[in-house]
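Structure catalogue
Derive tokens from sequence
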Amino acid sequence: MRTVTCLSYTGQPSNECPESLQPATMQQCESKCDATPNSNNDECKDVNKVAYCPLVLKFKFCSRGYFRQMCCKTCQGH
């Protein structure tokens, strides 16, 4: 379970988010969960051809497997 919060572009709480665009409060876990942190930090890096990792962090997509893998260094600790 997770908490879905509507924030303005400045990061302040807002009531302006259409409910139809909000993500589900609950969702099934991905089948491949990496429960252990990466022990070798040299292997954790952002994929070179991906230039949107700062946006992935800003919009809190690090919890999604694909983005966490493509932007490993940026998402580390988030």
Q: What stands out?
A: The chain has a mean pLDDT of 78. Residues 3 and 25 are 6 Å apart (CA to CA).
